[in-house]
Amino acid sequence: MSTTIRVSDATRQRVAELAAATGRRMQTIVDEAVTAYARTLFWESFEASYAQIADDPER
User: Which of 27, 38, 50, 51 is 20 to 30 A from 9, comparing alpha carbons?
Assistant: First the structure.
């Protein structure tokens, strides 16, 4: 399944350049970028939660 999303012209150009430089499809570039961003958000949330627990003297 595929769908259309709106991105700025600059973002579309950057994705096209990355695709050309790597020989990969634009869809693959976007898929991997979103996966990497989701992973980053997960670990940022994890680390923030861990820091909160570590700072709690009751634990």
Answer: 38
Tell me the residue type at 37: Y
Angstrom CA distances, 19 to 42, 47, 50, 59, stand at 26, 33, 37, 49
> What DSSP letter does each residue of 12-55 carry, written as one string?
HHHHHHHHHHHT--HHHHHHHHHHHHHHHHHHHHHHHHHHHHHT
Summarised one tens digit per residue, pLDDT across range 1-53 is 889 999 999 999 999 999 999 999 999 999 999 999 999 999 999 999 999 88
**Cβ atoms of 29 and 18 closer than 8 Å:** yes
